[in-house]
Amino acid sequence: MANRHLSRSVAMQALFEWDFNDISASKADELVNRVIADFAPGLDNPGFARELVTGVAEKQDKLDAIIEKAAPEWPLQHIAIVDRNVLRLGLYELLFGDKKEVPARVAINEAIELAKTFGGENSGRFVNGVLGAVYKEMGEPGKFDVPAKKKRPKDVPYEEMPIEKLGGAVVFCEHDSEIYLALVHDIFGYWTLSKGHIEAGLAVEDGTAQEILEELSVPIIIKDSLGKNEYIASDPEKGKIRKQVNYFLAECTDENFAKLKLAADKGGLDDLRWFKLEEIADLKMYDDILPFVTKGIKLVMDSR
Question: For domain 3-137, is the CATH number 1.10.940.10?
């Protein structure tokens, strides 16, 4: 994930709280520092997120006036709080940001992605319409610009890419005669499986159990292998990396059911819960995770 995209996500969370709780603009910097500490302690460039939030807070009146002009049929107080702050954030970058760092079309596209992630079904379309109207009013600056090529690590063939081993698990527990699954929630609105980096020298099963314990605060018993997937991630210094994730079915004993707690230093995650099996189908989950969840549930039910 690009560091700037994560910064914008952090800024969006801070702006939501700032607006919802009617926090003074003078407290904006303090608020974003707390959001970074809670949800993204490993953020490489926290200054960018702070700049966005404090900038929006300081220029709120100007930004709101532009929104009201661009969307006259939508009184500001009637716009959903997420959409309202995505618009403020997008407009701030569009109008006051460094155009060399963030071209106009990038600012708009990033705002649309935030709207799709944090908002409702039609949020992306709404934000696109409002920001697009402002962009046209500005004369569509940079429309024909060709993005400058950035220096990046030299690509290497797939078979020569470094490999990072990770372990994840479908964690289940039988509690009060019901089967529950433990899922973590990320800042992009998805429920997913707990996973982490396998330290060198550890067996995959042992490393996975260690990572799950650190993230969920409960010990687990590895029961079955669910398979693995692989994806390619880009590191700004190392270049492309093959990340291989081994997934397991793992049991948490009933005596540890109530001990489930998300580790404080897990940047990018904001919630952790037990779900009954019938609740799983209604959750927003990543497509590549669903096969492992489905297989895990089947193994649990077959063993009962």
Answer: yes
